[in-house]
Specification:
Length: 518
């Protein structure tokens, strides 16, 4: 009895140690394949905290898909966890899966290397008979940065194979921006079912590249022997479908070589574009906003148009983030770029011209287009200070004094009795005119429009973030507090932010600025 109890005690002590012990292993689904087939290797680790390696490729062949799963087991109250990660790739020649490092509970483990052999098969055999195929087709193998290439991805298989599901990997190529054209197309061609996807791909970098491979998974139902197969009653399609399994098959495309030439220096756009700019007003009150809208439209890589940020002296300029509406027309990609720019100033200013430069693929030349400058008149503008030199001031003073002295001598020589009466009448008329002007000025003061509300009250009364932003823009350069609140308003307006704007702090800062100005 003691012997049995002792054994149980030893086992109970060993269970937690065994459960806590970390281990790592690598398994492959097959070690020998033919071109076009895929290999999946799985790393399994047992432990609480597992960090798997980041694997981008094996032997130069990219990892197509990854999958992760975990399981938990409880033995005599002790919890152990097993985590697995699978990697799938499609080698086109013999490769070796190298040792891979896995960290388990803070300790490093290394997997064993595995050799994969790849056999060659005849091309006509691969594409003929019952074998499905996956192809990449480009309209051309040479392009420039930003110039669209048309690409088709085709899956082709015999109609009688009756695949119930076909999943095609979406293309993602480094240094290329990709846009799908329409939905997939399915049609029949000489006894084959064809599935076609169409894309526009835009090179983002010059160089030589290989696109692909892509992977597709096809699934079909395969009948299995029914336990009731000998009964004629159950020998039909309805019952036959109840005894079937789903058979999946992976196929892989080849690669396509592409040469991408650079654009001329200083040019980012490739296509055909136009640009225009318009101000909502050309005459504005001091410190009131002017809104300028810049539009670029055309065919080509419209997404690469850069944001415009004009530099206007003695003005506050806020440039919104541009909005791009893209479209595909007659198989060509294009769109409209729209940007709004707000300008606030206390003196006349000029909105500078806006320029775009692009490479025209038809003429093979760089084209430059620009808008006309826009002159803005500011009502109540601050006048420019004109300095006068002391020498010039004295010269003017002496000239004025000399003229006055000469006039006095001339008047004294000609003064007579009639002239004195004339002066008397002229003085009377001038006095009457002055009295009239004085009374008219008093009446004008009574009729003049009421004073504008204080800025603090207008801040309180602002009903929207946009209204408040336009009130604060003239003071952005004068206060960090105002600038911070303006940034919040910008995020709320243009980025759907939910920032709370502190009007009390704004009013306090504005009052301080007014006191400083006095």
């Amino acid at each position: 009895m003691r012997s049995v109890s002792g054994r149980w005690l030893v086992l109970l002590l060993l269970v937690p140690l065994l459960a806590a012990a970390a281990s790592v292993r690598l398994e492959v689904d097959k070690r020998s394949i033919v071109e076009g087939d895929t290999v999946t290797f799985t790393i399994t680790a047992e432990g609480r905290d597992v960090k798997f390696p980041v694997v981008k490729s094996i032997g130069g062949f990219p990892i197509l898909t990854t999958a992760k799963k975990s399981s938990i087991s409880i033995v005599n109250g002790t919890v152990s966890r097993s985590i697995s990660k699978s990697y799938t790739f499609a080698p086109m020649k013999d490769v070796k899966i190298p040792p891979l490092e896995v960290e388990v509970d803070g300790k490093l483990f290394e997997t064993e290397p595995v050799e994969i052999s790849v056999g060659h098969i005849q091309k006509q055999h691969r594409n003929g008979g019952d074998s499905p195929s996956l192809s990449l087709i480009l309209d051309k193998n040479e392009s420039r940065v930003g110039e669209a290439l048309r690409m088709e991805v085709l899956v082709k298989y015999p109609k009688d194979r009756n695949y119930v599901d076909v999943q095609v990997q979406r293309p993602e190529f480094a240094n290329f921006w990709i846009k799908q054209i329409g939905d997939k197309e399915v049609y029949d061609d000489d006894g084959y079912r064809v599935i076609r996807y169409r894309y526009l791909i835009f090179p983002q970098k010059a160089g030589r590249f290989e696109l692909g491979p892509l992977q597709a998974t096809l699934a079909r139902r395969v009948k299995i022997k029914s336990p009731l197969a000998n009964d004629p009653f159950f020998d039909d399609d309805f019952f036959g479908s109840m005894f079937a399994r789903l058979e999946r098959r992976n196929i892989v495309s080849g690669k396509i070589a592409v040469k991408v030439d650079p654009l001329p220096s200083g040019v980012d756009l490739n296509g055909l574009f136009d640009i225009e700019a318009e101000a909502d007003k050309t005459r504005v009150e001091a410190n009131k906003p002017v809104h300028v809208t810049v539009k670029v439209n055309g065919i080509g890589n419209i997404d690469d148009v850069k944001k415009f940020e004009p530099d206007i002296p003695d003005a506050v300029v806020y440039a919104d983030d541009p909005k791009i509406e893209a479209y595909i027309q007659n198989g060509e990609y294009g769109g409209t770029f729209t940007q709004r720019i707000t300008i606030v100033a206390d003196r006349n200013f000029t909105v500078p011209s806006f320029e775009i430069r692009y490479f025209d693929p038809k003429s093979k030349k760089v084209v430059s287009k620009r808008t006309d400058p826009i002159e803005i008149e500011v009502v109540g503008a601050v006048a420019a200070n004109k300095s006068t030199s002391p020498e010039h001031a004295n010269e003017t003073l002496f000239e004025g004094a000399g003229k006055l002295e000469k006039e006095e001598r001339a008047v004294s020589a000609k003064v007579g009795e009639e002239t004195r009466w004339l002066y008397l009448l002229t003085g009377f008329a001038a006095g009457a005119a002055c009295a009239y002007l004085f009374l008219a000025a008093r009446g004008y003061r009574r009729r003049k429009k009421p004073k504008e509300k204080p800025l603090s009250k207008r801040v309180v009364a602002a009903k929207s973030d946009k209204e408040l932003l336009e009130l604060l823009l003239p003071y952005v350069r004068q206060s960090e507090v105002i600038e911070a609140e303006v940034r919040k308003l910008e995020e709320n307006i243009y980025k759907n932010g939910k920032n709370r704007v502190d009007k009390d702090s704004i009013i306090e800062e504005l009052e301080w600025l007014e006191e400083e100005a006095r």
